Amino acid sequence: MLIGLQICGEKSFMNTINNKKNFIQTYSLAAIDIVCILIAYIISFQLRYRGSIKMGQIDISICLVLVVLSLVFSLILDWNHFIFKRGYFDEFLAVLKYILSMAFMLGFIVFAFRLGATFSRFVFGAFAITNGILTYVSHILFKKYLGTFYRRSSSSDKIAIITYKKYAEEIIKNMRNDGEWG
Length: 182
Description:
- With 182 residues, the protein is mainly α.
- 71% of the residues lie in helices and 2% in strands.
């Protein structure tokens, strides 16, 4: 005996769900990452100079380079693609890889443009640590918020499952265990 109703055009229906989710996920996380970078850079700069000097042109340029690097990682390399499938430890490892990649690229840029004498190594290290913490916490909060929003929202798309009764429990169990289905 079949359970459920058939949805017409299920392939296009699922593509619509995935495209909407990916659009919101990608651009929201890119914006969150940029905000984390700006906050972390300002905090690390203030820790180093205790507010005694203002950011110069080199400091602002390095901050903008970090924002551009973040956009490259978020929009082109799509490092947040599987964010809803990652648990806490996997998210920590993903953020760690992201921070180390950013630090490596920033180190290369500082070396290539000979900015080592003017760019503080303390700001560099404090930024990496602060940005790592902010990014990790904001990603966890974003996942919780968006997961709750999608589950409870009246604007969320609903699907119907068509299967035999003997397979229904197993399918529902598999969907609940998969991070993207909640």
